[in-house]
Amino acid sequence: MTSLSNKPLFNQFISSLVFFFLLVIILDFVCSSTASVSSVTSPFIYTNKKVKVAEERKEAKALLKWKTNLHSKSQSFLSSWAGSNPCNWVGINCDDKFGSVTHLNLSSHSLKGTLHDLSFQSFPNLLSVDLSYNSLFGTIPSNIVHLSKLSVLNLSYNQFTGIIPSEIGQLTSLLVFYLAANRTIPASLGNIRNLTTLCLVKNQLSGSIPHELGMLNSLIDLELSTNNLTGTIPASLGNLRNLTTLYLVKNQLSGFIPHELGMLSSLTDLELSTNNLTGITVASVGNLTKLACFRLFTNKLSNLISFEQNNFTQLKVFLIGTTHLYKVIKFKSIISSQETPFAIATADSDIGFPMYATRVNMLMRDVYIGAKRFWCVIAYQIQNSTGFSL
């Protein structure tokens, strides 16, 4: 009877013992698996570290080679460039994970030399290059095409010569492009469809504006001022529906302002002064209702134009000066704007307001007229202008 009464306790002991052994086996299996995973992962981590170190050394070597070929005084400004880890150097930013150089910013560092000793292919992850306001010279090397991830390129205010390499058109990730002192605009720039800013101001650009620029549908800011560009303004620029700024000042552009510009409904700043433009139509500017600044002086405009059906309510600056200006534009809608602070004509102009202008209750903040001959009956209705000078 006693042995039978102890049987449940014996069974419970056996069950506990079996459970214990099973638990030991499971834990042993888990530990073995973890060790196995560790043995696989460790080499991977180790390999990553080796790749990171190798990448750093390759980029450091390329930068140091470029440094040694800069003028001696320039090298002193890069005294931190030493060793094999460029991520701690002045003007260099790296990716935290892989330690690869992503940003090269040496703007205003008094650098003098060329770019030909800079091995661009050594920087596969470079996103931004800013070398503006230095004294870099020579041509822009075509191997810049290796910067396939580049989104910002600023080489403005240097002393570069020669043409803009067509290979730049292959940098399809480029969003912002500033450049100075080159000769022609390559048509291949039309391939950079994500470009939002193209600034080629104060270059030595010659030839015509390539119609391919009209393919840059993302463009917001187009600045080609102070060059020697000739020919007409391409009608294809009318395709740039996101454009807010168009600077074509101080070139030798001729012909009529194309009516396609009237389709740039987002345009706020239109600068066409100091060219050889001969004609303007209502279609070319009449629908630019967001226009805040319009400069057209020092051209050869001579055709009659009326804006009587248009109202530039956002216009803040209006500069238009040309011989026989009264043959060029009627001011009714412009001077009736409540927001227009300036209406200016250059000193060599003949300017006239039509008689109906004297009946407009002018709400301009300041009206400055500098003209060789001025004709208009200045009536008392011009009473709310805070400044009016002749």
From TrEMBL:
Which GO cellular component term is one of those annotated?
membrane
What is the protein named? Leucine-rich repeat-containing N-terminal plant-type domain-containing protein
Record bears the keyword Methyltransferase: no
Q: Give a yes or no for keyword NAD in this entry.
A: no
Q: Where in the cell is it found?
A: Membrane; Secreted, Cell wall
Q: Where is the Disease resistance R13L4/SHOC-2-like LRR domain?
A: 137-249
* Keyword tags: Cell wall, Glycoprotein, Leucine-rich repeat, Membrane, Repeat, Secreted, Signal, Transmembrane, Transmembrane helix
Q: Which domain of life is it from?
A: Eukaryota
**Family (UniProt):** Belongs to the polygalacturonase-inhibiting protein family.
- Give the classification, highest ranks: Eukaryota, Viridiplantae, Streptophyta, Embryophyta, Tracheophyta
Q: Where is the Leucine-rich repeat-containing N-terminal plant-type domain?
A: 59-95
Tell me one GO biological process term: response to other organism
Q: How does it sit in the membrane?
A: Single-pass membrane protein
